[in-house]
Amino acid sequence: MAIIEVKGVSKSFGEKVALDNVSLEIPEGRIFGLLGPNGAGKTTLIRIINRITIPSSGTVLFNGSPISESDVAKIGYLPEERGLYRKMKVGDQAMYLAQLKGMSVKEASAELKKWFVKFGIQDWWGKKVEELSKGMAQKIQFITTVVHKPSLMILDEPFSGFDPVNAELIRQEILALKQNGATIILSTHNMESVEELCDDIALINKARVVVTGGVDDIRHQWGNNNVEVIYTGDAISPVEGLYGVLSDEVNSGRHTAVLSVLGGRGANEVLSSIIGTGVAVNSFKELIPRMNDIFIKLVTEEA
User: Fold this and answer.
1) Is 136 exposed, middle or buried (0-12, 13-18, 19+ CB in 10 A)?
2) Is the dihedral of CA 194, 196, 198, 201 positive or negative?
3) Are 142 and 162 within one domain?
């Protein structure tokens, strides 16, 4: 079931087309990567889902019905442009934002303090925001995004400004939120995070959806059907109609070969054929392209 359905959404600002007939579905209970180069239209789409911006045409459905103001309360949004009131105390700021999402004072206080303890920042409650580093302020914003337990969370570049330790902390919390049933839209340029976290993605370029689907499906779809074999023994020879040898490098008697699987044949057939020649196979794997390579290929092809 899709928690969000975007149906034929277009948005123009004067002569500038930000979104052009965009349609996609965001499945419930999954992490959905919203990808694209700067200026592609991602932020505009996020703002439309949040009802900050109204589309020029098309519609957005939330759980099957046109999204309404009451639905926005069920969304947690962490924008890329961070913004906290610098002169306010951290605890007062967090309480204010939690209450804006409908939490009572008692409930907000209890839940926020749980999160502050979890992140090891309980000593920051009485500090002013201006005393915090960028990474510290970002932790506060992450907490205020998720504290009301929204069914949908939209996280725009959530790892920006974090060191590796705190970035990993946020990754683990995102996975825990998914495990507890939340749906998460993750907008990021970090393709490693996409591969680690996302179940599905949509790539937007020049205001249009270029590709959408499961991460594993897309990686296989854009692969070249090549395999890497590390082996010892006599050099592997191509087999007509089954595989060709693209490269074969030898180092200290160990070969590393890249084979091109031909005619829709399977990798297992290739492995069985190689083993039959009597070589000792140490490693065998499909060479599936990284999301970073696919991103670059699709965006540059559209240039």
Assistant:
1) middle
2) positive
3) yes
The span from the CA of 289 to the CA of 226, in Å, is 10
Is 302 within the bounds of a domain?
Answer: no
Q: Could you tell me the residue range of the domain that residue 158 belongs to?
A: 2-220
Q: pLDDT tens digits for the chain (303 residues)? A: 899 999 999 999 999 999 999 999 999 999 999 999 988 999 999 999 999 999 999 999 999 999 998 899 899 999 877 678 888 999 999 999 999 988 999 999 999 999 999 998 999 999 998 898 888 888 999 999 999 999 999 999 998 878 889 999 999 999 999 999 999 999 988 888 999 999 999 999 999 999 999 998 998 888 778 999 999 999 999 999 999 999 999 999 999 999 999 987 888 999 999 987 879 999 999 898 889 988 988 888 765
Pairing relation of β-strands 200-205 and 31-35?
parallel
Joined tokens for residue 186: 């993750």
Tell me, yes or no, whether 300 lies in a domain: no
Q: Does 293 fall in a domain?
A: no
Single pTM value for the model: 0.85
Specify the number of domains making up the chain.
2
Q: Which CATH number characterizes residue 11's domain?
A: 3.40.50.300
Is residue 41 domain-shared with residue 28, that is, in the same domain?
yes
Residues 75 and 88 in one domain: yes
**53 with 202, same domain?**
yes
- In the beta sheet, which residues pair with residue 214? 200
